[in-house]
Amino acid sequence: MNLSLSYMIDTFVKLAQIPSPSGNTNQVISWVTEELSKSGVHVERTNKGALLATISGRNNDKHRLLTAHVDTLGAMVKEIKSNGRLKLSMVGGYAWNAIEGEHCQIETATGRIYTGTILTSKASVHVYRDSGKAERTEDLMEVRLDEKVTDAQEVKALGISVGDFVSFDPRTTVTESGFVKSRHLDDKASVAILLGIMKAVQEDKLELPYTTHFLISNNEEIGYGGNSSIPSATVEYLAVDMGAIGTGQTTDEYCVSICAKDSSGPYHYGFRKKLVALADENGLNYQVDIYPYYGSDASAALRAGYDIVHGLIGPGVDASHSHERTHSSAFDNTAKLVMAYILSDELVV
Ligand SMILES: [Zn+2]
């Protein structure tokens, strides 16, 4: 089977380099559209800017849908300060210290790109005694632009305005030991996996038992990704999104994580048991976990009122929404479980 691990990791690296904070995802969606056109997959762009790719199956009365989100955390210019620094407003949820020291890009409304660094306003230890202790808040964090500016007027003259999108340098590194270190593994790793799956299905001319949709959603980090544009024949909905690692979790950076429950409540029990059975049958490295502070495209679809069976799996990602890391093994195990699922003949209900 042409399910290529190197294609998926290379694709992740490319996706990570395209800025795509929630609310500003046209560029990355266009890139994914182009990539899918190479595989000859039929795609449609939704009004909200997501991408719905469809591969026909033997049974066209009942459909399956898988999703992964291509939007990421980011920020917006909240205010141009009188000293020429930029105050930020978060896009998505994270801790301010997770972006301290990060290089960033500011995109103006006309498409100009400026660079800067995210720092506290008390960054120098030679000047501020409490530099390290001050609580990292929206008020303390600021962007130092790489431009000769000293006041707000000079910043505005560059074309920078309140509402401009700010994206973070992903600092993507693939190590010889197989680790993938990067921001936005959540959830571009899973987007890369779904692209790898679609490529393999097309190249190997695999016949899917059911017509299967792949929704590349673009508003997950702000809560409502994947909650619309679900074709009416859809009966099963599988979100492919990162597995959460931390104290008390069994998920690690090598496995595919199968989510039993998150903040939204339990995922469909029968679907979860099916995913576990498929992982067992295929000898995959998997863990079942509960994610304490988490929601997904699938839970968003349930809240929107869809009558579907919902599940959630994904590669284990360490330090999520911070300096994330996973391993090629997690890509591999997740892709194999997704492939086993879309080829499975039985529906959950
Ligand atoms: Zn995610």
Automatic annotation (TrEMBL):
Keywords: Aminopeptidase, Hydrolase, Metal-binding, Protease. Binds 2 divalent metal cations per subunit. The active site is at E220. Its EC number is 3.4.11.-. Zn(2+) 1 binds at H69, D186, D241. Coiled coil: none annotated. The keyword Hydrolase applies. Pfam families: Peptidase_M42. One of its GO terms (molecular function) is metal ion binding. Its cofactor is a divalent metal cation. GO terms for biological process: proteolysis. Zn(2+) 2 binds at D186, E221, H321. Belongs to the peptidase M42 family. This is Putative aminopeptidase YsdC.
